[in-house]
Amino acid sequence: MSVLVTGGAGYIGSHTTYALVDRGEDVVVLDNLSTGTRALVSEKAAFVEGEAGDEALVRRVIAAHGVDAVIHFAGSIVVPESVAKPLAYYANNTVASRSLMEACVESGVRHFIFSSTATVYDENARQPLREDEPKNPISPYARSKLMT
After folding, report:
1. 14: phi > 0 → left, psi -120 to 50 → alpha, else beta; which?
2. pLDDT 10s digits, 35-52
3. Which residues are identified as catalytic?
């Protein structure tokens, strides 16, 4: 299977990439390196520098690598920054994710995994969290993830 990992130069994305490579999957990482580090990407993974929301780029990457699945980690994640710059968070986390998903659908990608956040849930929700717990996102970051 060929897997595209967006945000694959970040902490969670790079660890996921190593796990996929160790499992024998073909992996391509798409990251804009705004917060990620190129050195974290496995040498066994293909690397493309760019935006996950760039539909034309994503379609080219999917076609060039025969991508079957996408694991989407790319996005802005700093809660205080989201309060200061909410529109930037909606643009990067929600609008760009929609563009990515549209490119995936148009390209015939059959599997898509989205990494959300526990901050979409009510802070008083029982632990461990379940997906059907009440939602109560209190920051633009959390709202942008829930909207996606």
Report:
1. alpha
2. 999 999 999 999 999 999
3. 141
What residue numbers bound the domain in which 50 lies? 2-147
Alpha carbons 146 and 12: distance in angstroms, whole number: 19
Local structure of 136: helix, strand or coil = coil
The CATH number given to whatever domain includes residue 99 is 3.40.50.720
Q: 3-state DSSP call for residue 135?
A: strand
Q: In the numeric block, which tokens belong to residue 135?
A: 């939602």
Please write the tens of the pLDDT for every residue from 117-141: 999 999 888 899 999 999 999 999 9
User: What is the number of domains present in the chain?
Assistant: 1
Q: Can you count the helices (H) and strands (E) in the chain?
A: 6, 5
Instruction: Report CA 26 to chain centroid distance, whole Å.
Output: 18
What distance lies between CA 24 and its chain's CA centroid? 21
Question: Residue holding tokens 């790319």?
Answer: 74
**Helices 96-107 and 55-65, axial angle in degrees (round to 10):** 40
Q: Which residues pair with 70 in a beta bridge?
A: 4, 112
